[in-house]
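Morning F.,

Quick status update on the modeling queue. The single chain you submitted on Monday has been processed. Sequence for confirmation:
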Amino acid sequence: MTRDKVKSKDYYDDRIAFKKECIEEDIEELKYDHSNPTRVKMKGAFRLVSDSMYLLHQKYSRGDDLPSLKPVLLNLIEYRQWQKDFADALPEGEETERIQWEEIREDYLEDFLKWLSFAYCLNMGKDYYLRMLALIANQGLDSLLDKIAVKMGDIERDISEELLFKKRFSKLYDVIESQPEQRPELLAAYLDAWYELEGCPDYHLMNTDAYIGYWCWEAALVVKLYDIDDSSFINHEYYPKDLVHWQDNSNK
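Structure tokens below.
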């Protein structure tokens, strides 16, 4: 059964097959096409990371079993390592090419939080979290990201006093800065505001394939990470409750 109630399983089957094909083609090009300069390969690796994020999103919306998403997460961290390796190998005079693909921006932070959400909720483990956070980098620049990173185990990280994207994330930041008993109400308010904070994209109204489900991934991360009682908003339309409440029974 699909988790998303707007589009059918056939719709997601088609979109997921297409995304997998794009990923396979980019991997083939990165591995075997030696004609591309390093900066092009770096951008190709960035595209692999982005497409893997989309794949996680699409597969969740389709209703895939959550453990089946773990291989996507393992691939994703490898692609992000490729991106860094290509960036580190940029020739003299092209080093600044990496900035726009690595420097924190609002949309990148949304993706970082999505990645962190899937990784933490699916219990990928501390080694994975620390490697992921090191690759995300941007330490000491944004207080929301820094405090979440410390909570996930990056305890030596510098913590910024500045919230970079106040309009987008101040309500979420209020959740983690509040007293535990206040967090459920504040998180519910964030979920209520989330669609507008996202810019009211209205992808579901467009006659395109842009729609892949509306989910507030960062809510899942914060609920799980800060052990917030979600009973008052568990059925909120944007809350990915299956991700939050998945239990790893592999060691039982």
